[in-house]
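Retro notes
What went well: the complex prediction finally ran end to end.
Inputs used:
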Amino acid sequence: MKRVLLILLAAVLVASMLFMGMGCKEPEIVVETVVETVTETVEIEAPTEEADSKIPEGDVTLDMWMQDSSSHQQWLNAYIPVFEAKYPNITINVSYIPYGDLLEKLLPSIAAGDEPAIMHGYDSWVTAQDVSGIFMKLTPDLYTQEELREKLYVNLALDHFTDENGDIYGIPAWSGAAGGVLYHKDVVDEVGIDMNAIEKWEQLEEAGKKIVEYYNGDMRAFWLHPGQLGNFALGHIYKWGAEDKLFDKESGVWDWTIPESRKIHEIMLSWGENGLWDVDAGDVHTVFPTKLAAFELTGPWGKGFYSTNYPELDMDYIKMPDFYETDGIANVLYHHSSFMLSSKLEGDEKLAALLYVREIIDNPSFFNMPLEGSDWGGAINIKQWVDYTLERAEAGKETNEKVITMAKLSEDFANGLIDSGSMIPRGVIINNLVKELTHQLMRGDLTLDEFLVEMTTQFNIQEADFRDQ
Amino acid sequence: MKKLRINSFATTVSIVVLIYFLIVTVWPFVYSLYLSFFSTDLITKQEFIGFKNYEKVFTNPVFRQIITNNIIYLAVTVFGAIIIALILAYNIHKLSGWVKKLFLGIYFLPTITSLVATAAIWRQLYFPHTGFLAQLWNFILPIEAPVFLRDQKTALFSIMVMFVWRVVGMKMIILHTALDEIPDSIIDSAKIDGAYGWQYITKIMIPHIRPQLIFLFAISSIGAIRTFTEVYLLSDPVGGPNHSTEVLAVKYLEEAFEALRFGRASVYAIVMIFLLLGLVYIIYRSYQEKIEH
């Protein structure tokens, strides 16, 4: 009897493993197709004499850590073969790491001395750090300070990688923090909303009310990704010209009790009262796919994320409408996907790593790679790419609407960036302060007055703490 | 000659274990203590600041909340899990045959399930409005279901429920084995003397399984002070709404790997170590009292 039971148990285990294997979906990354497309559009030039001196002579293998988002993977899976084809003696071994693990792994690995040659991370991770002790100095080996600042769109992001001498230690290449509105096409079509006509937040709110009314409250209007929630009130206050009243950069003192702060939070409270937003509707990655909300405020990476994980969703994306009672938007809590190099590289390895970064900056067509098969995820910070794409679009040579939209988004994003001057890391502001306290406000755990006082208190505690480090 | 060989082997093994203990346990403690007097990110700076980190930690209004959370977690999960395990063991002990084995297996299943997978499932169960528990609550009770993990009043309790559910099986197995070891002669004598129900439990059963209870109390308490995984996986944000689920280990992670304040993080580690040492001392004294008795 025992033997029979054991055999049965073994059979069940094997069968379940087989079924699990059958049930797993292979990721649909069609590298071959993308590479074919790339060879049509990319002119692979032979290295020039001048460039020869910056090309390593021997065989080099570089390790790289990259965030494992679908858009990053698809871009890199296409970029690496083309780079290696151009420089056959250089091999890139990339490891994809989830965002949270990458954050916790990157700087401790540098402290331990076992970081990879090429690192992907975010400029907001090093705002309170002395970057000169962390990463390789890129200037003047890569370019001079002036050249690099000219080649990149957003110098504010470069400032996070700049030491007191003006030397630069990282390349902020693109930003997924450029906010927009991801929406369910079938839902807006059914309700009769023209999303392309929405240019102001007042219009988006009206559209949201229509949706809530149409579905009798079963579907909310908004879901805010934490990054967008973090920026919403701050961005409005800055756009309304009250930044100096909100935060004194010199003394590092915050005051969230100002009238402009009260006003924007009253607007957000009205969303709750009108059923437009429920902070407890669910999880950041389940509310939108399960249609508990019609709109998600997120970066364009959100579309790439959902289209990969939920391909059945019929959705589209518009750029963030102009803020309430103003023209344009403001991005105060931006951050950029950045490339940094290990300070321990020498000789051929150093040349190869610098070459890798130089190609990203100087060969703008490399950024076009994954767009044929996927949705890209950001505002590109490389000026040459934006100018190159807009020129091609104007000349009729670039017809891919996604590419053109991204170039236009990049320009808008760059113009709307504001440096708050705060030493509090972006992640702490978003998760530990704004999201945490705003949810308490929306849930009724705090009155508006209590909320504004608590925001002021907590922001000042954190600011003092990080300035004191 | 034979005695010498055994002693050499024992000595060698002991030295190896001692070296391992020094490297893996003692050295990190000493280094943490050292770092706690510095302002450092371990990469670009290391500045001696004396007791300033301790001042920052002990005057932080959240610190009291953190210690309170750890103590509540210890009290509820340790006593809760042991009491539930004892009740289950006592009742299953009365069963026999395949029914007994079936129940032992069912209650032990959560223990062998991956903690990450368990946490993912319980997150789904705790989903506000649409989660199974919220729907069940709304179906049975006239009041609106709480938002469990997102409400500061219920977040820690929700995590403790999952934890107790997961660990009660292992404790039940240990206590069940202990109950099996109570001599039949003792049980029979108790019955003859009229000791039933509560009298039997308090006068006969618990004294006989006291060593196992102390053992479970010891390891559970140490685990409760060090708790991290379930709190980290279920809390949203990390540390919970209004720090309601923030515990020492989670705070250590935030300070070390998010804020890169390794000196201040070390203070939280030192506090945890001293709490554990205090706990171990109390448990050791309990064992000493038993021996003396």
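What we learned: Residues 19-52 of chain A have pLDDT under 50 and may be disordered.
What to try next: split runs per interface for comparison.
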